[in-house]
Design brief:
The chain has one domain: Rossmann fold. It is 35% helix and 27% strand. The protein is built from six helices and ten strands. A hairpin with a 4-residue loop joins strand 9 and strand 10. The longest helix has 19 residues. It is globular and about 45 Å long. The relative contact order is 0.13.
Length: 239
Amino acid sequence: MTIQTRPIEYQHGTVTCEGLLAWDDAIAGPRPAVAISHTWAGRSAFEEASAVELARQGYTGFAIDLYGKGVSGATPEENSALMAPLMEDRALLQARIAAAVAVLGQQAEVAPGKIAAIGYCFGGLCVLDLARAGGDVKAVVSLHGLFGAPGNTAGRKISARVLCLHGYDDPMAQPPAMLELASELSAAGADWQIHAYGNTVHAFTNPAANNPDMGTVYSELADKRSRVALLNFLQEVFS
């Protein structure tokens, strides 16, 4: 097994983005692919590590970029400023992530029609919007994501399978928001699951998360459980 990576530049409107592709070159031919949507800080080593780990599991991983090549935040204030334009224009967000998925589908290491998307925190909301907008993916997975509906997809059917891996005590998406999402997904005819982990807050998969006041704390147990759930779901989706 030899994991290979390469950066991929792509254009969305006037914005030049750059994602990182990861695959195992010991596997011959194209294979199912997973796009990884980043947190509010922008594409980082965290999402790149997720792409590499998925490559070790036999997938093609692609850590996508929603902000632009080399653009990332270092503080909550910077992160919020980067995220705000996409949160305020959800149609733009949906088009930006759809462009990343389209580029992924063009790679030689990707089996046609076999793409899923996962996202962390803000990225979780992005992949949910991808499903809401009818994106060309078989499934999406939100990990400690945000749930608020975009306002421009009401009444649309959701064909992608949906899995949300969520901390029940997440202050950024509290239980009422989780129930609202469940109702939204049911109304859209989605095949959906929500796994809620007790005594677990936001960012539970990130070992660097350690801010109880902000509600972002790593949980080794929830991280392990969510990884198993994610891999089982992907296996089901692509079988």
